[in-house]
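quick one, two chains, predict together pls
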Amino acid sequence: MTATIPESLGALRALVEPSIRGAIDRLDPHCRLVSGYHLGYWEADGTPTDGGGKGMRAAFTLLGARAAGARPDRAVPAAAAVELVHNYSLLHDDVMDRDAERRHRPSAWAAYGEADAILAGDALLGLAFELLAEAAEPTATWALRTLSVTVRRLVAGQTADLRFERRDDVTLDECLEMVRGKTAALFACSCSIGAMLCDAPAETTLRLARYGEHLGVAFQLVDDLLGIWGTPEVTGKPVLHDLQSRKKSIPVVYALGAGVAAADRLRELYLAPGELTGDQLTEAAALVEAAGGRSWTEHEAGRQLDLALAQLDEIDQLAGTDDAAPAPLPADVRAELIDLAHFVTGRDR
Amino acid sequence: MTATIPESLGALRALVEPSIRGAIDRLDPHCRLVSGYHLGYWEADGTPTDGGGKGMRAAFTLLGARAAGARPDRAVPAAAAVELVHNYSLLHDDVMDRDAERRHRPSAWAAYGEADAILAGDALLGLAFELLAEAAEPTATWALRTLSVTVRRLVAGQTADLRFERRDDVTLDECLEMVRGKTAALFACSCSIGAMLCDAPAETTLRLARYGEHLGVAFQLVDDLLGIWGTPEVTGKPVLHDLQSRKKSIPVVYALGAGVAAADRLRELYLAPGELTGDQLTEAAALVEAAGGRSWTEHEAGRQLDLALAQLDEIDQLAGTDDAAPAPLPADVRAELIDLAHFVTGRDR
């Protein structure tokens, strides 16, 4: 796993960030302030920062354009759109989940109030469609449809996630389906929408979407592992945060369904009223591990990463088999897709 | 003013409602349940009703198609889209405004919780773009851009409305600008997007947008009058509701700025802490009237209606002046646009 930030993330920021900044400049001044704060462009009072997200979804979109043999700047509207959709969902999720912190700062609703965060989310979602609709490509209509289906899947994933909190019989399959909606859908969209906008062969676009879908699942599994065993410096959250909030994350749900003694004790802790003590949190983490939740999740994350990377091989194997077949991936694009896949599932920076 | 429901509203419901129902059928079951409840298709537990909104925005969109000489069904995706955007904004506004009632029933957040209402709003907004992106018209990209700009204006209007609540120096001009965003923008979009999708001459589309913009302002002014002097049976809200919630509606803001003795007493009541008594509410309504807030708003509503109708004359006056000029409005379309304009500003059904 790579410990350094891949080059594609830096290049991408230079290309896509101006488009996102230009988009939020179209908003009314207050909504622009809230949006730009959330995006990390300035402090709550408008003082500029050197922040901003990593933009990994945008990076995948620009790589998709290059996979289609196009210049990355052709996919900038799509790259900006996926980042805007990602940030719309963060804004609204933080309101719904009562998460008061995001990227080591107060989340938007905590800084400005709930209504402002809802409105900023709405605005970013609208801008995503606006930028794509402005793309002067006949393929934009397909990209728009993909983006809107993705929004539906995001909503379904968050709906399921919230409903799981009130149930104690959530199955691993249900949980994985929720992850596909909540996380993998936008990864799949990000990885394929650039190729789609640049008129790539259908097989290339499809394989890139599957690459993104598997990678998204792997990313979420790693995120769930970090939510229990990650250090606060890396996650930006308190230690054992996901256990404190009794989140039905994948390692926990696996452990609860493992049918071993550790599972029963874990269930007892998860059902107990009130805050868990530090000792109980440490015990819960050990129980998840003893019931196999950690090793299963680590193994599955690796398997999903392998499945993602196998999609790149499939593109190359299909190349040249008939007239409609895709071109092989340019060697540098292939290398960057592999690099970025390891980066987003490593999360060790 | 007409007291009966114009025919175009019934025809439109038969044409557009299946498209909206089909759209929400694409959502995950729970989000579909919340959305259909809000739309009036069923009770909170899913029991079907014979409800549903009037769909006046959709009616304007189909009339726009007919104004362009096209069959109304060509504009169904646009008509469904404007209704979906309208309902997304109602869902989110009710959360932000803490309005627990909508159309004589608990609002969606009151029935299901805040998160479900936020998610249903997000879903409907996404579906609006999805339906338009699926429209098999080369003009769909223009319609999409218009819709997304409208979302921005809606957000700006709601942002301003919420911020006005915390200020006691809001000017009439600021208030009217807020109304243009919060209400007139979607009216303008609804009235023009059908013509746009059906490739009407630019002048026709532009005039229909202006017709909608003026009509939207007139509609909101009438709504503000009903918020003070309407009966609960018509408005579905408690009597003097807007005064109880100290809303900065147009009649109130006009009155506060009128520089007369009644304005000072009204300001005193609006700034007083705690709930206003029944007597104080009656006094406040009388003060708004004494300061000229009622008559100015009534007069301005009439003026905006006249400006709206004058746009229809302009289309006919432009007709035939050169090759790019619009065709005159078909007589039946013209009659229905006039009828509907009186209906939405009468609000006496």
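Chain A touches chain B at residues 26-28, 30-31, 88, 92, 95-96, 114-116, 118-119, 121-123, 125-127, 129-130, 133-134, 140-141, 144-145, 147-149, 151-152, 155-156, 158-160, 162-163, 181 (CB under 8 Å).
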